[in-house]
Amino acid sequence: MADADILKVEGLTKVFAGLTANEDITFSVARGAISGLIGPNGAGKSTLFKTLLGVHRPTRGRILLDGRDITADSQQQRCRQGLCCTFQIAESFHDLSILEAVMVGAYSRLSRRAEARAAAREAIAAVGLSDWEDLRYSELNAFLRKKAELATALATKPQLLLLDELFAGCSHQEIAELISLIDGLNRREGITFIIVEHVLHVIMSLCAKVIVLESGRILEVGSPREISTSPAVLTAYLGEDYDADEHQKFGR
């Protein structure tokens, strides 16, 4: 029987040359849930994401994916086990077409070209880019690049997908489209998401649980409503002199 929690992080600490970026981070993510990871700039969100992905090795602690300890696994091993990420700025495939770039993701689990092409086209269709699959990344605007990178991640068949500021720089209409897309992928495909995001409307709209980091430690964990009205969280974001108008703006 599968564990109810797809991800468990236990006492995770990362120290760089004497500087502690993450300290004693412990949390779990329920299978099939959408969780948010927020915090002021410098709170340690990027370090935590990179440690989960295997870019950094933790100084202490461990990471369990689907009940298996992956703390010492490589990035490639984690990808094959269903852990993938999209990044805020997609530039890796500048000279490739969308189809070619998404096939790179499919090759993480498939070896035959025809199978990778079919899987890539399925992922491209899932994000609504079928009509653009022959365009090169260099021809895409920022929003289409975000969708193309999401398709590349989907082609790896992730169980758990980390979204690193996917919504950054998007218009209100684009944000609404991405919210609908992520919600649909979660409901139809059962993909679990962790979202790092400064656009708090996204966190409030999508997430069942929000993890708040400050100065490398977990400040608070709760529902979006609980987090949006927490004095500790408001102080971390807005400073000790926040007022009622700022409070209301945060919670929207």
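(the above was protein one; protein two follows)
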Amino acid sequence: MTIQLARIDQRLIHGIIVNQWAFETKASRLMVIDDAASKDEVLKASMRLSKPAGTGMSIIDTEKAINNFLNHNYDTQRVFIIAKEPSTFVKLLDAGIALPKINVGIIFNENGRENITKFVSVNEEEKQDLKELKSRGVPVTIQYVPTDTEEDINKYI
């Protein structure tokens, strides 16, 4: 399995992902793991429009992502995963999918979340999920764009 990076970004696919992070990770596949987005054909079509030439893109639900990884479907690819919630990555770890690092980019300040940085807000469940990811040995950092300095999530939670 060649997961290069996993990122929490509630905007999923957007300019910074396509123009900076995909380049930084040298991704050959952008993978959006989101149960709702995987069923929204209009959203999927708009995200696919921004896909860099020569790069694959998957927009799939969590169960399909787990099955595809366990079936070694991406073994020859450099995969960059984007999901909206930290709980998605807890589920991947629960299924035995190894994650080299999790980057927290954007979590919107809505639905009772507490702002912890300019671009990241979390609720108690998300804080616990981030702590769980760290406790399993996965580095979790906050970094908006690749040129920003990485900051360990522990500084904020």
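Reviewer note on protein two: Residues 124-135 form the longest helix (12 residues).
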